[in-house]
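We emphasize that the prediction below concerns an isolated chain of 261 residues; any contacts that depend on oligomerization or on bound cofactors are therefore not represented. The input was used exactly as deposited, without trimming of termini.
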Amino acid sequence: MKKSLEACVLSMFLCLSVSPVWAAKPFPKDPAERAKALERYKEGLGLYAKGQKFQSDGKYDEANATYGQAMVLFQDGPKPDMANCYNRLGNAYLEKTPKKSLWYYSEALSIRRQDHGEEHEAVAASHNNAGTACMKMKEYNQAIAHFESSMGIFRRATSAKDKRQVGAAHNRLGNAYTAKNKHGEAKRNHEKALEIFLKVFGPNHPNVARSKRDLGYAMIQNKEKKQGLTILNEAKDIFIATEGAQYIETLELIQNIKKLR
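Result of the prediction step, given as a token string:
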């Protein structure tokens, strides 16, 4: 016998309610209140699906408005991954309208804080997104604040053996300090990233090459040209060994080394 629509939705609601991911209120025990909650939830799911259709069609403002309506209906219960929806809207605006992108990333960050608490990798990832939008806006101090928040969470939330996200955060901070012309700080962060990546990935890995490349550029900007070129050539050799001589990052680095000599 097929389940009724109400039974299916109730099963979904209860299943999500017991998950630690969602900060949902307990499902109402009163039959009348339970029926109302189920209707709100079904209506919210319908709006969520409608918002996803708008988003896939590139109608981002309509998607945003529809998601907002769905969020109101999901307030007293579990919800789909609305933060991911807002992140994807942020991605759509990042290149051309980073200020609007930051608004969506901030919404996602707020949702993830409510759902997971402060000390969660999803929250750290949202800080990275917000920091990236701030970089596009040339709001470097805000970017640094987000990247430092992300790094702190990843440092506490990940195992001692796997700190790749901490290394990536140091790289982001290095790039932000470079944008502020604070080349000493940039160099220190890229050095820390390289130290972590060597421990995590070993000496022959594309991420180590990228870290050495960024460090080399930072050293040259910090008036350490000879040492910087040495590091850049090491990065080039790793790229050739791991990705090939015709790999786009290899070719770009070779061209830049020629210009810097």
